[in-house]
Amino acid sequence: MPHEVRGVVAMQPGAPVEVRTVLVPDPGPGEVLVAVLACGVCHTDLHYRDGAVTDDFPFLLGHEAAGTVEAVGDGVTGLQPGDYVIIAWRAPCGGCRSCRGGRPWYCFDSRNAVQPMTLADGTPLSPALGIGAFAAKTLVAAGQAVKVDRAARPEAAGLVGCGVMAGFGAAVNTGGVGRGDTVAVIGCGGVGNAAIAGASLAGARTVVAVDIDYAKLDAATRFGATHTVNSTRTDPVDAVRELTGGFGADVVIEAVGRPETYRQAFYMRDLAGVLVQVGVPDPQMRIELPLIDLFSRGGALKSSWYGDCLPSRDFPVLIDLYLSGRFDLDGFVSETIGLDEVEAAFARMRRGEVLRSVVVL
Ligand code: APR
Ligand code: ZN
Ligand code: ZN
Q: What pLDDT score does 108 carry?
């Protein structure tokens, strides 16, 4: 018997989301049914609802979630009912070329649940990022459910499932920030501030936060930024060079996803510096750079895929850092809301008023 729950559904491109009855099947082989406790509202949900990701409507939105395993399907090992989990949108298969090559974040055989969740009339729903957690229950592949310490409150823990991991991992996994490094982070939303926290915990000596909004820069200071630059007032490239002894930063993290901030990131690097792009640009965006600058400035230009994380390795670490008081996950939770308020949360997100709104179920 399918489980009947209420879920936040995007029915057609650009239309406001609706709370609909959703039918969630019992888990089949390799699947787990998760009782969702909390799920953050992320830009990607809005991109789905706007039709900017795929046109596979209708979508069941929500993908930054923590919950409790309610039932497991045949063949599932290592998880049982009652386990407290964060849901990952990538579950590396362990066997493909990327996984075996030690780069599981590029896995091209990541699995999601096979059985569809549906609307009441049987219409199959596409779960956002293979999750669909703006609902009291969701069905995912066992590999997507990562067990963590249950002492972490779900409103905070769920955020590790996407934006926080993306930012933290951009600094620590992709950027390889280490002790004594100088770091700059452009864009201090949920993703950028997680990068700042990651850089700070990794031992960076200088962490420069760049944003256009003073409130975001205040938040950045709480997450560990040593300096802040409002790029509407001060040229951020000059400012970062000045703060790094004239050299530029060892690692620059671009967490906005725009050509002008990418350009700033490119030029505020040390000659051997690493640029990590974690902000997601619109597909039509272009950037033009003198080829000679690409040649004469060495270092590396990287992009960070979900923080280049291995969920089963990295999620429990972030939760332990949180529980031991070294990582302020609570600081990302701007407000908690109900399922009916997701559309309003999209508007607040667009206006830059929140780091994260979190739906509590
Ligand atoms: N220069 C500097 N900062 C900027 C600029 C700019 N030109 N434009 C916007 N910002 C700042 C905003 O003020 C905000 O603080 O960038 C931040 C973006 O934060 P959010 O909108 O909260 O987005 P976030 O969830 O952090 O995601 C950032 O990463 O994963 C991607 O899709 C995600 O592209 C998005 C990016
Ligand atoms: Zn793989
Ligand atoms: Zn997300």
A: 87
CB 131 within 8 Å of CB 114: no
On average, the pLDDT of the chain sits at 97
Right CATH for 3-161+328-360 from 3.90.180.10, 3.30.160.150, 3.40.190.10, 3.40.50.620: 3.90.180.10
Query: Ligand 1: does its nearest atom lie under 6 Å from the Cβ of 117?
Result: no
> Does the pTM exceed 0.90?
yes
Q: Ligand 1 within 6 A of 43 CB?
A: yes
Pocket test for ligand 1, best of 217, 256, 303 (most atoms within 8 A of CB): 256
Do residues 279 and 256 lie in contact, with contact meaning Cβ atoms separated by under 8 Å?
A: yes
DSSP strand pairing (126-127 vs 31-40): unpaired
Structure tokens that stand for 124 in this block: 């199959």
Whole-number Å distance between alpha carbons of 100 and 107: 9
What is the distance between the alpha carbons of residues 164 and 30, in angstroms, rounded to a whole number? 27
Q: Is 254 in the pocket of ligand 1 (CB under 6 A)?
A: no
In CATH terms, the fold of domain 167-305 is Rossmann fold (3.40.50)
SS3 183: strand
Contact 281, 215 (CB under 8 A): no
Residue nearest to atom 16 of ligand 1 (CA): 187
Q: How far does residue 156's CA lie from ligand 1's centre (Å)? A: 20
pLDDT in tens, 168-192: 999 999 999 999 999 999 999 999 9
Q: Is 166 in the pocket of ligand 1 (CB under 6 A)?
A: yes
> What residue spans of 114-228 are helical by DSSP H?
154-157, 163-169, 190-201, 214-222
Q: Where are the domains of the chain?
A: 3-161+328-360, 167-305
